[in-house]
Amino acid sequence: MALERTFSIIKPDATKRNLTGAINAKFEAAGLRIVAQKRIHLTKAQAGAFYAVHAERPFYDELCEFMASAPIVAQVLEGEGAIAKNREVMGATNPADADAGTIRAEFAQSVGENSVHGSDAPETAAEEIAYFFSGLELVG
Ligand code: RTP
Ligand code: MG
To answer: What is the active site of this protein (predicted)?
Structure first.
């Protein structure tokens, strides 16, 4: 499998509970290298633009409020098959369905406040990385 990059967010529920280090330890243990990382506090409009694909979903407004409610940590993770590997380490969207040992099983509070985001395909990974980082900030 090829070396790949994916985009990750440690969400407000996790930064508020000081879980950044514990979550990063899980990424690194899975062979994902953190090649870029920054802590930022999104506005609701910035969160809305990031999640524009969900604009018609009933949870969209609540999701944007949540993502702007406290700082996030935006990251780029690199590794063999990084997109699929990251989603495996995150676990299912709803923590009630997440496998034991995954980030969401251990840390998520609800289907909405579920601690992490990870890109779902190569095209979205490229778009999401470019939304948050310049090429100079990616240090492999
Ligand atoms: P993500 O995009 O954050 O990595 O999560 P995902 O692919 O597992 O889930 P997705 O379907 O893309 O949904 C994006 C985020 O919206 C929130 N959500 N809330 N209240 C609800 O029913 C509901 N469903 C989704 C979650 O924060 C989810 O991660
Ligand atoms: Mg998604």
So the answer is: 117 (pros-phosphohistidine intermediate)
Q: Ligand 1: list residues with CB < 6 Å.
A: 54, 59, 63, 93, 111-112, 114, 117-118, 120
Nearest to 7 by CA among 54, 73, 56: 73
pTM attached to this predicted model: 0.97
d(C-alpha 62, C-alpha 57), whole Å: 10
- Has residue 2 got a pLDDT over 90? no
Report ipTM for this prediction: 0.94
Q: Which of 78, 117, 118, 133 is catalytic?
A: 117
**Does residue 37 contact residue 66 with C-beta atoms inside 8 Å?**
no
Angle between helices 82-90 and 20-29 (to 10 degrees): 130
54 in catalytic set: no
Bridge-partner residues for 73, per DSSP? 10, 39
